[in-house]
Each structure stands twice: as structure tokens, then as C-alpha cells.
Amino acid sequence: MKLTAKKLIELDKKNIWHPFTQMGDWLNDDPCEPLIIERAKGSYLYDIYGRKYLDGVSSLWVNNLGHRNPKIDAAVKKQLAKVSHSTFLGLTHIPAIELSQKLLSILPKHLKKVFYSDNGSTAVEIALKMAYQFWRFKGERRTSFLSLRNAYHGDTVGAVSVGGTDLFHKSFKDLLFKAHFAPSPFCRKCFARKNEIPFLNKAKNFKEHCKIAGCGGQCVKKAEDILKKNGKNIAAAIIEPENQAAAGMIIMPAGYAAEYANLCKKYNTLLIADEVATGFGRTGEMFAVEYSKIKPDFICLSKGITGGYMPLAATITTDGIYNAFLGKYEEFKTFFHGHSYTANPLACAAANAAIDIFKTDKILQKLKSKIAFFKNGLAALSNHQKVGNIRHLGVMAGIDIVKDKKTGAVYDYKLKTAAKICAQMREDGIIIRNLGDTLVLFLPLTITVSEISKIIKSIAKRLDAL
Q1: Are residues 133 and 43 in the same domain?
Q2: CB 267 within 8 Å of CB 142
Q3: What is the distance between the terminal CA atoms of the chain, rounded to a whole angstrom?
Q4: Gap between the Cα atoms of 337 and 325, Å rounded
Q5: DSSP assignment of 205-231, as one string?
Q6: N or C: which end of the chain has fewer CB within 10 A?
Q7: What's the confidence (pLDDT) of residue 191?
Q8: Which residues contact 293 (CB under 8 A, 6 or more apart)?
Q9: Which residues of 380-414 are buried (b: 16+ CB within 10 A; e: fewer)?
Q10: How far, in Å, CA of 419 to CA of 407, rounded?
């Protein structure tokens, strides 16, 4: 018997604990009743009543090529007729082999070896463990890491250890290993001109940015101080190149990532690029490291790797890292890490199709005009009296909601202002999410100009109503 909507919601509230959700609010329909998604197509999600919603956050930043993409659908169905899963411990299979070749063909050429896993957190966890063990094999005991304030690298304990967002990570402080934190490139002086969108991107390079802002480049200087003092004990430094997304879309100043990478090279520290959020076209380039022009020792990928179809992740590294783990059986230099669903064939098939689509459908070429249109729409929003600052790069944006633009006064957190805006936008057929009082947009690469316009108009309408 088919369950009614009322019964489905009742069972959800009775049985399920949702991630990043205050369940007290969920149980009380605050700020809105739970939405039950039944199907999807293109840029849209459909609920059980048949109402459609523009997916303005790509289903949490994963669905970059649209829902029910016929080419990815076909690839998964074809693989389903062969084998759904086979262990990757001591065995291999065609989809994973093909995917490794495709990944290496689009990544920076110095990256040579692919290690598969399940999600962004595990991709980061693997890079951290590889870096730590690499130095052990080199005869050095490096037991700490360098990260940035406002960083978010996932929710497993290792990933949380290098996370710098207190809202998410502070509760687990006693469980974590040692990490040093340099300041986030989010200087308040850099955001003095709150109506500029985005001020950080106007400078041609990092030094020019610091000169305009008058901040003295303290974020880089303090990172260097940490490396100078502790470098011989730091196994690796980690960065989300160009965008600290989970911190509210903190777009880095032009050239900052390159300065950070140069410091790692100067102090002989391995560099991990966490591209779980920014990879696969989100910046307008295939990977943010191309935008940053940096050469990390590790790159961590997930989310958009399968087009948002299935859980899959990859940690890609250099021959130098890989070779350090080679040895005789009895030396136990094996990398003892793996997951039951490592390199799942269905997920690899989806990823192979997704990468092919970038080329055959000219996704990045078509994206340029959409990004320009998106930027212009955000620029218009930046003049609104309820907008404090807008940060934008590629198809990613964060819009800060304020009570008073002139003074920068914010709304009482208890009012859940941005959360209510997100709830109200559902009435306009749009789904986005908020981080505190920041509205977050993470658009599908296949979105149309008219759909972008629809989102911008809806936000403006809800801001007008505040």
C-alpha cells in the first residue's frame, strides 16, 4: 500500500536522524515542513506532489551535470548488467582502470597515481595518512599538519583535525591530532568596501590585493612563521584552493593559494589540495589548482566526480609518494587503508561517463557566458540594503544577509533569517541552503541563463520582504 505524504513525514520524524540538522526544528516544521523528493530531471527536483524546484545547490554541490543525464544513466545501466560490485583488495576491474586513465589525463601532469575511496572525508583522510607515513619511511617523524582557520575538510576524525571551523569541529577537540592553523585569507580589512563584488578578485595578484586592502599580507606571514618554527614536524599543509566553501564561500584573494604553495616548497612540506568542492568545473576551470596555478603533492576529489550520481572519491598523488611505499612483503610498507566499496564499478562507470560529457558537450566552454551572467546578477544584488557582502567564483557564491548595510549590523541569530529566506524560496520553486545568515549558491554547470535569473529574482524578492 502506498504511504500518504503525512505518513511518510511521520515515519521520517520517528525513525531518521538527518545530518547537519537540528532535529528539534525538523520535528517542529521550523522553518518549514520537510520536503520529500521523489524524482529529478535536469536542474530540477520534484516532490511527491509533482511540484518542481530548481536545484540551486546541486544537491549539496555534487550534481554538476544535471539530474538524470541520459549519458550517465546509460553508463550505469550498462555496468549494472555486468557487475555492481567487486572488491578492489587484490582484484581490479575495467571501469576503475579506465577512470584512472581519464583522471590522469585531465589532472596536472605531475600527478601519477590514483587511490580510490568513498567520499570527500575519506579522500582527505587518505592524503593525511599517506603524508604521515611517507615521512616515516624517509626516517623523519612528522606528526602534525598545517591548515587554515575556517577550513572544512570533512567529518571523519582526521579530516576534522585539520578543520578550522569551530561551529563544526570544536565539540571534538579532545579527539583530534595536532594541527597548526594559519589565519584564513578573510581579512576584515579586505571586506571594508562591502558593496563591491567581489572585492578580493579585483586585484591582479596577492601583493596588489594586500596593498589595496592595507592588510599587510598577515595571513601569509603567519603561515610562514608556523612553517619556519615547526616545519620539520609538519607532514603536510592542506588547502581548499580558491574557496573555503563550507565556511560561507570565502573566496581567496588572487594569488593567495600560490603564495601558500610556495611556502610549502620553501620549507619542504607536502601540499594537499582538497578539491572535493571545487573540482570538476566549479571555478570555471576543470580544477581549482589550474585556476591557482599550483602543483600539489596530493589532490582530493569527490562530489562532482560521478556527476552527483554515486559515492566515489579519489586521492591522486605523485610517483615520489607512491614509490616510498614500495618494498618487500616482510617490510610492511603497504598502505594499510581501504574501504569495502572502494572503486565501486557502478560509481566508476558514472564517473567515466561524466568526464566524457565535459569534452563531448563542451561544458567548460559553454560555462563562461553563464558565469559572466551570474556575476552580473550578483552585482545587482550587492546593492541591496540587506546584503552585506557577496563572494563569488565560477558557479559558487555566498551572500551575507545583514540588518543594516551601513553599519554592518546583523540579525539576531535566533531569528534564522537566512534559513527562513531559503524556506520562502521554495514557494518560488527554488531550493538553496544557508550557512548561518549566508545564502549559499552552488549551481549545476548545465544550468541555463534563465534559471540563473530565476534564482537571482527570487532572492531579491525575499530580501525586499525583510
Answers
A1: no
A2: no
A3: 44
A4: 13
A5: SHHHHHHHHT-TTHHHHHHHHHHHHHG
A6: N
A7: 55
A8: 258
A9: ebbebebbbbbbbbbbbbbbbbbbebeeeebbeee
A10: 22
Of 338, 360, 382, the domain-final residue: 360
Q: What are phi and psi for residue 147, nearest 5 degrees?
A: -140, -170
Q: What is residue 123's DSSP assignment?
A: H
What is the grid cell recorded at 234? Answer: 609538519
For the beta carbon of residue 214, count every other beta carbon within 10 angstroms: 10
Residues 6 or more apart in contact with residue 71 via CB below 8 angstroms = 353, 356, 357
Tens-place pLDDT, residues 53-112: 999 999 999 999 999 999 999 999 999 999 999 999 999 999 999 999 999 999 999 999
Return the pLDDT at 210. Answer: 79
Residue type, 82: K
For residue 189, give the DSSP letter.
G
Last residue of a domain, one of 332, 360, 388: 360
Within-domain flag for 23: no
pLDDT score of 6: 95
**Cell 550505469 sits at which residue?**
76
Identify whether the C-beta of residue 395 lies closer than 8 Å to the C-beta of residue 443. Answer: yes
Residues 195, 89, single domain; the answer is yes
Give the domain extent around 160: 73-360
Strand segments, DSSP code E, in 254-395 are 270-274, 298-301, 313-317, 387-393
Closest C-alpha among 58, 54, 456 to residue 281: 58
Q: Domain check: are 93 and 197 in the same one? A: yes
Percent of the chain residues topping a pLDDT of 90: 89
407-447 pLDDT per residue, tens: 889 999 999 999 999 999 999 999 999 999 999 999 999 99
Query: pLDDT for 119-150, tens place per residue?
Result: 999 999 999 999 999 999 999 999 999 999 99
> Which neighbouring-strand residues pair with 239?
273
What's the CA gap between 25 and 434, in Å, rounded? 15
Interatomic CA distance for residues 142 and 134, integer angstroms: 9
Q: Give CA–CA dist 398/401, Å, rounded.
A: 10
**Which residue reads 558557479 in cell numbers?**
395
DSSP-assigned letter for residue 174: G
Whole-angstrom Cα distance, residue 292 to residue 254?
8
Dihedral Cα 130, 305, 45, 39, nearest 10 deg: -100
pTM: 0.96
Please name the residues in contact with 48: beta carbons below 8 A apart, sequence gap of 6 or more.
Answer: 5, 8, 36, 37, 38
Q: Are 427 and 406 in contact (CB under 8 A)?
A: no
Dist. CA 185–CA 222, nearest whole Å: 11
- Whether residue 31 is preceded by a cis peptide bond, meaning omega within 30 degrees of 0, is yes
